UniProtKB/TrEMBL annotation:
Major enzyme class: transferase
EC number: 2.3.3.13
Keywords per UniProt: Acyltransferase, Amino-acid biosynthesis, Branched-chain amino acid biosynthesis, Leucine biosynthesis, Manganese, Transferase
Listed name of the protein: 2-isopropylmalate synthase
GO BP, one annotated term: L-leucine biosynthetic process
Signal peptide range in chain numbering: none
GO molecular function: 2-isopropylmalate synthase activity
Biological pathway: Amino-acid biosynthesis; L-leucine biosynthesis; L-leucine from 3-methyl-2-oxobutanoate: step 1/4
Domain named Pyruvate carboxyltransferase: residues: 4-266
Similarity comment: Belongs to the alpha-IPM synthase/homocitrate synthase family. LeuA type 1 subfamily.
Amino acid sequence: MNRVRIFDTTLRDGEQAPGFSMTEEGKRKMARTLAALNVDVIEAGFAAASPGDARAIHAIAGEIEGPIICSLARSTRGDIEAAAQALAPATRKRIHIFLGTSPLHREFKLKLDKGQVIDAIRDSVAFARGFTDDVEFSAEDAIRTERDFLVEALSVAAAAGATTLNVPDTVGYTTPDEIYDLFRHLGDQVERGPEVIFSAHCHDDLGMAVANSLAAVRGGARQVECAINGIGERAGNCALEDVVMALKTRSDAFGVTTDVDTTKIMAASRMLAQVTNVSPPRNKAIVGANAFAHEAGIHQHGVLQNRETYEIMKPEDIGLATDGIVLGKHSGRHALAKRANALGFALEGAALDRAFAAFKEVADEVGLVDDARLAALLAAQDGRGDD
Ligand code: KIV
Ligand code: ZN
């Protein structure tokens, strides 16, 4: 299968992070945006976490058509029932069960031995299958789990009816080489039917979530869990826009596709910023304000001749309408003349020299010169030229 499913967890792992909590209305708006983006799965929340989260999942399940709607659940009957109840109105629903499998989680968090963990996986997945035939199992902290135990845990989950086996790098510890090798190993060793797929869920603690997710895809993962603007616990999750655009832009390297409508990426990023009041950093890949902006004169000159000199993607492919030219103290005459022209000022010769000198002074003072400021400056220059 050459299609990678995109599982969006903006509304669950993303919302769990400090500073990103959303109202029910905000979550519903975001879910509509994710449906327009055409993600495969929307993890709408964690039903047992709070009545508000359960209500938001229920509302999203009732109004969103297209993507599978999912709720997280611990491996307890109460959590699974809460997830099933919240998801009841959904046309396509998934229950996502997680349980820690690493020695640290078994010993210090769960206080369960290996046999008890295996029993809990078997029982909870089988119980969830009573509500839906789409059950995902996550071996929390899979990366720090002994390989043979991870193979056993995932094989038991598949035998009990899980159709997606998720391998989270819960603490963002792995490396691309290591996770590639792990997915190859799991693909060889985990007993499962042909309908079962592996999924990667990478955190960004060492800044490698996207690289690790892409390596997992090369290793055989056919679902990537990610969040808009890369939000999520601590340093965040794999950024949806990064992984999707990497798979598209470098299809020669990965040979797989997603069904995401990339022209809706910018709208999704902006909607999240609006709903959470947090914008991505200017230099964020794909959606940051600088991602398609060129201030330096040499770059501007290149881009004005042929955008590919300094751009590997088209802004319109992510739904961004821009010529990418930003005017600041590093900008050159070509860019100034072009923007002035667009604003209705034809500049040549001495008039361009004068305007350029005045523009540099203002840029030194204010940094970026937006259209309103530039128009005022050019109008003032026009007046001077007439004297
Ligand atoms: O990071 C993690 O392990 C998780 C699981 C609940 C999938 O978010
Ligand atoms: Zn996570």
